[in-house]
Design a protein that fits this description.
The chain has about 230 residues and is an all-alpha fold. The chain has one domain (about 10-225). Helix content is about 75%, strand content about 0%. The protein has helices at about 10-25, 30-35, 45-60, 60-65, 70-105, 110-120, 135-160, 165-200, 210-225. The longest helix has about 40 residues, at about 165-200. It is globular. The chain starts with 8 loop residues before the first helix and ends with a helix.
Length: about 230
């Protein structure tokens, strides 16, 4: 059972690590404990999600390294990416909360659901491992499956439903989030473009994503073997 104690900074960090560890072990008790935290300590889950976002952005920062982004702009890019990641997590949380209130037998408090479900993003703390040469894409795919399993366990723990119901509910929620993602991308496009222009500078970025970087490494490796 995960005990919640945020009476001091040390206790805050210790509790955060305990919750993250429980989530990575796919322990239902961690997700139940997170959902039962008082609203005044919601910042605990907020930090967990933001750190996951930062780690994920750092894991994909090979794009920034390849384009020789300056340190200041590099940091801005990481922070902006972490905020977008947090926004993506909250979209999924909101969809699951709406589903629970629409199909459930009783009303569910949004912050309670958000704390428990958002903790499922904790495995993304390991996203910095995406930087490992040649294995980055494999690590990325593994983490996506890992987080989906965590989401299923969180769904089951927070709402107290059977595993298979949680599995289908999680799949439907992710499907809806993917369907509405283009709409939110369009809404954020002006701000995203402004950030990218100021982060990357005036010149066009030749390499836009980590997949292109990995492909570049693979091509260079093949050429070196010839």
């Amino acid at each position: 059972m995960v005990e919640i104690d945020i009476s001091s900074f040390f206790a805050f960090v210790q509790t955060m690590l305990r919750l993250v560890g429980g989530a990575m072990r796919l322990d239902p008790a961690a997700f139940r404990a997170a959902s039962e935290i008082t609203s005044s300590s919601t910042r605990l889950i907020l930090w967990i999600v933001l750190i996951a976002g930062l780690s994920r952005m750092f894991g994909q920062s090979v794009v920034l390294f390849a384009n020789h982004v300056q340190p200041k702009r590099f940091i801005i890019s990481l922070l902006w990416g972490a905020l977008k990641f947090f926004f993506d997590v909250m979209v999924i949380v909101t969809i699951i909360w709406a589903m629970a209130n629409w199909f459930g037998t009783r009303p569910w408090n949004y912050t309670q659901v958000a704390r428990g479900i958002a903790l499922a993003a904790a495995p993304y703390w390991l996203s910095f491992l995406i930087l490992i040469p040649y294995f980055g894409m494999i690590v990325d795919r593994f983490l996506k499956i890992y987080v989906f399993l965590a989401l299923v366990i969180a769904f089951q723990a927070v709402f107290g439903i059977p595993f298979w119901d949680a599995l289908w509910g999680s799949a439907i929620a992710l499907g809806i989030s993917l369907a509405v993602e283009p709409l939110f991308d369009r809404l954020l496009a002006p701000l995203d473009e402004w950030i990218n222009r100021h982060v990357m500078g005036e010149r066009d970025v030749v390499l836009q994503n980590s997949r292109q970087i990995y492909e570049m490494f693979a091509q260079r490796d093949q050429l070196s073997k010839r």
